[in-house]
Amino acid sequence: MTQIRDLSQPTTPDDAVQRLMAQETEERRATAAPPEALGESQGADAALRERLGAAVAALRGEILELSHDVHDHPEVGYTEHHAMAAVASLLERHGVAFEQGVYGMETALRAQIGSADAGAPTIAILCEYDALPGIGHGCGHNVMCANSVGAFLALAELEAAAPGTLPGRVILQTTPAEESDTAKERLALAGMLDGVDAAIQTHSYARDVVHQTWLGVRRMRAVFTGVPSHASSQPFMGRNALDAATLALTGIGLLRQQILPMDRVHAIVVDGGQVPNIIPERTELSLFVRSKHLETLKDLVGRVEDVLRGAALMTGTGLEILTPDYSSEMPVRPNGPLSAAWTRSQRERGRDPLPFGVLSETVAAGTDFGNVSQRVPGIHPLIGVTSGPAVALHTREMTAAAGSGTGDAAAVDGAYGLAAVALDWLVDPALREAVRADFEASGGAVDVARFWDN
Question: Are residues 384 and 418 in the same domain?
Fold first, then answer.
């Protein structure tokens, strides 16, 4: 029987920092200029938006049914069979054709409405529905799924009632495995964005925010290879791969003092050796390197790679740095005119999105929508699914909120918001030109697939 000689418990983190950040947010909100919204002469006119609102209202029950169904059947990345079937069933109920298993991804679905002309203006509404292991929909993807599908069906209803209402094409594309992989990059490499001029999607949160910082992420694996030997009788004949991993983690810890405030480097030991009495021959680290800008991300990755090489040199071990082509997430680049369309839509729903810069950047994370936004104009606004700002993403409290009445309100309001943005963009050529001009002014399309080549 194993004897426990010393039993202790983890300390409870102090929530003062969260309370202080919330206070800071309110102070900034009081002095910040409100986010820009489209004027009445831009986008869809008031009468068309009223018809859109009526279509969303008629779909309310089905939007909530979908949100609850996905919430009650959480599935991790690439296993979202129930969620995809629920989306497919709803599309089928409305007579919308779709394809499943598209682009070689078993749980990816695609549908389109509007013009059949290959050159028609085309906007994609992306849809996530994967959950987190252990805690379910603690990132609110059930609400995001309902937003996207509800928006697509509302636009389909407008077009069905008055053919030609949509002077272009709308695509619904489900994108699995946002939490566990960079599936949008895989889909983009397979052709998901071919012929697409803009892409939009929401993200669940504790507040309504037009845009929040999303960090770029480089996912890396470092494998150190040493020489095994008896750890007691001949340790001097070994080359310790665990020492290399330890030095690498120590070097990363020291590096953190000299990096930008928004940079993040975090790592775990995937393989630390087999038994204590053999000098470890192989160890493996899994690392995430994050930064706010493409340029600073590339620089930080180079510095981390230098740390890994230094650890190998100090221990006389070999090193492989493994970075799959599809594994990196780019920072999200928001589009100004599309953001203004979103802001107008949410004010029409009684929401008041915060402008960029009011929320602390300290809480920034990453998403593979960044890879989309670097290729085509896009937005990824945050929609509040909780009753207050204290609930954090990836918690059981967020899971509960995503299935509650506040999550329901966000499911319907977000569906109207995405549909309104798509409609504004489709019916207003001047807005489409402004969207493209803003995208080009912020750097234009990035060759994401080749970004790390040099």
Answer: yes
Structure confidence at residue 453 (pLDDT): 86
- Confidence band for 195, pLDDT divided at 50, 70 and 90: very high
With respect to residue 327, please indicate whether it lies within any of the assigned structural domains: no
Torsion of CA 64, 421, 451, 179, to 10 degrees: -10
**What integer best gives the mean pLDDT of the chain?**
96
Backbone conformation region of residue 81, classed left if phi is above 0, alpha if psi is from -120 to 50, else beta: alpha
Tell me how far apart the alpha carbons of residues 378 and 211 are, in angstroms, rounded to a whole number. 11
Could you tell me if 300 and 358 lie in one domain?
A: no
d(CA 409, CA 63): 10
* Tokens 């409100």 belong to residue: 34
Tell me the two tokens of residue 392.
Answer: 């954090």
Q: Are residues 41 and 174 in the same domain?
A: yes
SS3 state of residue 168:
coil
Question: How many residues in total does the chain contain?
Answer: 454
Contact 48, 426 (CB under 8 A): no
Closest to 141 (Cα-Cα) out of 317, 393, 354: 393
Please give the angle made by the CA atoms of 246, 287 and 136, to the nearest 5 degrees. Answer: 125
173 phi, psi to nearest 5 deg: -125, 115
Residue 21 lies in a domain: no
Do 220 and 205 reside in the same domain of the chain?
no
Q: With respect to residue 166, please indicate whether it lies within any of the assigned structural domains.
A: yes
Chain segment 46-75, per-residue pLDDT in tens: 999 999 999 999 999 999 999 999 999 999
Number of structural domains found in the chain? 2
Q: Where residue 445 sits, what CATH number does that domain have?
A: 3.40.630.10
Candidates 220, 250, 236; CA nearest to 316 is 236
The rounded Cα 404 to chain-centroid distance in angstroms is 22
Pairing of strands 378-379, 216-225: unpaired
294 and 336 belong to one structural domain = no
pTM: 0.94
| Boundaries of domain holding 382 | 34-213+332-450
Give me the amino acid identity at 292: K
CA-wise closest residue to 81 among 65, 101, 95: 101
Q: Do 376 and 199 contact (CB within 8 A), yes or no?
A: yes
Q: Is 282 helix (H, G, I), strand (E, B) or coil?
A: strand
pLDDT tens digits, 316-364: 999 999 998 788 999 999 999 999 999 999 999 999 999 999 998 888 8
CB of 259 closer than 8 Å to CB of 311: no
Nearest CA to 317 out of 221, 227, 222, 220 is that of 227
Cα(156)–Cα(173) distance, integer angstroms: 15
